[in-house]
Design a protein that fits this description.
alpha+beta, five-stranded mixed β-barrel, two-stranded antiparallel ribbon
């Protein structure tokens, strides 16, 4: 006759389950830690946005001192050293980000400015015309260090002024001018009416993604535990009385 269910763990399934649970819990905790770190970074960004803008001088600054800070720069744009960052889509329309150096004051150093988005012409061999303010311009915006983490669509990463992505190292190798170690993401406020669109998304820190991954790892740990318990429970058969 049917008897009681008895938990009879075996050695190797126990070791495998323990290793799997330990690994998934460790990965879940790591994702939680990364999420907390990103949350703290977002709080810092919000605080920095309220502080006065840093004036960008002609001498080289430390990127870490201005990263994610509001900055202001005065100088003249140099269109001949501009690059167009390809495949930037806005509302379903493919275009470019226009990155142009601004010569700072009377010195020889420049700072790169992402002046905004412009629609493509529909002809890959013809770039859109971009209006450039004459004389001294004041640029306000957010100081960013371009990421090196991206996927290149082909081996031709730079075809003349059209580039797939922007890195400071690539720009320094291609252009004969000294630049600051960051790029200014120009604000719309205070900019001239040049037809460029400056609608910037806030930096994607991936906070929700880290918490989502943490939940998945913890759920997997729970699933391993449940499977282990169910797989190691046996029904004990009791003998019927004579």
């Amino acid at each position: 006759m049917p008897g009681k269910r008895v938990f009879r763990p075996r050695l190797w399934p126990t070791l495998a389950a323990a290793a799997g649970i330990a690994l998934t819990l460790a990965l879940g905790n790591w994702q939680l830690k990364r999420g907390h770190e990103k949350s703290e970074l977002k709080t810092r960004i919000d605080q920095l946005a309220k502080e006065p803008a840093i004036n960008v001088p002609a001498v080289e600054l430390n990127a870490q001192d201005v990263q994610l800070r509001r900055v202001e720069a005065r100088g003249t744009f140099e269109p001949k050293y501009a690059v167009f960052i390809d495949n930037r889509v806005r509302h379903g329309v493919t275009g470019y980000h226009v990155v142009m150096p601004l010569k700072l004051g009377d010195g020889s150093r420049y700072v790169l400015v992402n002046r905004g988005w412009v629609a493509g012409t529909g002809d890959r061999n013809r770039l859109p015309e971009v209006k450039t303010p004459a004389g001294v311009a004041t640029v306000n915006g957010l100081a960013l260090v371009p990421s090196k983490r991206f996927i290149e669509l082909s081996g031709n990463t730079a075809e003349g002024p059209v580039w797939q992505n922007l890195t400071l190292e690539r720009y320094r190798q291609a252009m004969p001018i000294p630049i600051q170690p960051f790029v200014i993401q120009q604000d719309q406020a205070g900019a001239t009416d040049d037809g460029l669109v400056r609608e910037w998304d806030p930096p994607d820190l991936g906070i929700d993604r880290h918490y989502g991954y943490a939940f998945q790892w913890f759920a997997l740990a729970a699933a391993i535990l449940v499977f282990y318990l169910v797989a190691n429970v046996e029904r004990k058969t009791e003998k019927e009385p004579a």
